[in-house]
Design brief:
The protein folds into 2 domains: 33 residues; 145 residues, no CATH class. Helices cover 42% and strands 13% of the residues. The protein is built from 5 helices and 5 strands; from the N terminus they run H-H-E-H-E-H-E-E-E-H. The chain starts with a helix and ends in a 9-residue tail after the last helix.
Length: 190
C-alpha cells in the first residue's frame, strides 16, 4: 500500500515538473519572440477605420534597440523605434511629455502611445483620454514634443497612425491601432 502511494506521489511530482517546464517554455517563446503580427482581420479593421478617419498608417524599419543616455534624433516623427534611454517612461497620462528617448523605450516594451499637438483643443484631448481610459494597461498619453505634422497620432514599435485633423472617426481608428499593435514589440514587459 505504501509503495502504491509513493508511486502516485512520484507520478504527481513528475506531472507537475512537466507542466511547469511546458509553461516556462511558453513564457520564454512569448517573451523572446512576441505574440506575432496582428491578424488579417485586425489589419483590415484598422485600415478601414483609418480611411474613415482620414488618417494615414505607416510602418517603418527598426532604427535599433541599443541603450544610451544621450539625446537622439529619430528618423520618424513621432519616433517609432531606435536607440533609447535605459529607463522607459511609465504607463500613464502626462501633462508634459517625457523625453523621446524614454518613451521610445516604452514602445520597445509593447506600449501604445497616444499623442496630440500641445495646442489641441480640450475636446480633442478629452476624446484621446476616453480612448486611453478604456484600456490603460500598456498605454501612455501625452502632448507631442517633437513637432509632429499631425494633430493626433498613435505609435507602436515600428508603426504609426497619424491624423492631420481630428474628427469624430479618429477615436475608433486609434482603438483599432491600439488593438492591432499593443504588446507586439521585441520585449514583453508587464
Amino acid at each position: 500500500m505504501q509503495q502504491r502511494a509513493s508511486g502516485r506521489t512520484g507520478g504527481y511530482i513528475t506531472a507537475a515538473v512537466l507542466v511547469v517546464a511546458t509553461l516556462a517554455v511558453g513564457v520564454w517563446i512569448i517573451s523572446t519572440h512576441g505574440p506575432g503580427p496582428p491578424s488579417r482581420s485586425q489589419l483590415a479593421q484598422l485600415k478601414s477605420a483609418a480611411a474613415a478617419a482620414h488618417c494615414s498608417l505607416a510602418s517603418f524599419p527598426s532604427e535599433g534597440r541599443t541603450h544610451t543616455t544621450g539625446r537622439l534624433h529619430y528618423k520618424t516623427n513621432p519616433p517609432t523605434s531606435g536607440p533609447h534611454n535605459p529607463v522607459p517612461a511609465p504607463d500613464r497620462v502626462y501633462t508634459v511629455a517625457p523625453p523621446p528617448e524614454y518613451y521610445v523605450h516604452s514602445l520597445e516594451h509593447g506600449r501604445i502611445e497616444l499623442q496630440y499637438r500641445p495646442d489641441a483643443p480640450p475636446a480633442v484631448r478629452d476624446a484621446l483620454r476616453g480612448v486611453y481610459d478604456e484600456f490603460t494597461h500598456h498605454m501612455l498619453l501625452f502632448p507631442n514634443n517633437t513637432g509632429m505634422d499631425f494633430e493626433v497620432a498613435a505609435t507602436a514599435w515600428k508603426h504609426r497612425i497619424g491624423c492631420a485633423h481630428f474628427n469624430p472617426n479618429v477615436p475608433e481608428a486609434l482603438r483599432r491601432f491600439r488593438d492591432a499593435y499593443r504588446d507586439r514589440a521585441p520585449e514583453q514587459v508587464p
